[in-house]
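Support reply, case 0932

Customer input (verbatim):
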Amino acid sequence: MRYAVFPIAVLLAGCEPADQAIDRGYDDGYAAGYNTTCEIRSTLIAGDWDNRDYSSGYRDGYAAGASACLTERRAD
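Our regenerated output:
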């Protein structure tokens, strides 16, 4: 019976809760948006584009990061 549990554990190990995927996408997007807009450097991201939650978080984070850069530029 313990052999039947192993495949299930392997399948569940690859699952990520939606809120974690959104947070990870947001963080990646924020960094990429900020760094690209401020022309700081390229940014390494997870790029999990097949994950709808990651992609949604990335879009929101990118917009927030770009906006933060532009706000800082106006303050200077």
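We compared this against your earlier run and they match. Two observations from our side: Confidence is low (pLDDT under 50) at residues 8-13. The two ends are 66 Å apart (CA to CA). Please reopen the case if you see a mismatch on your end.
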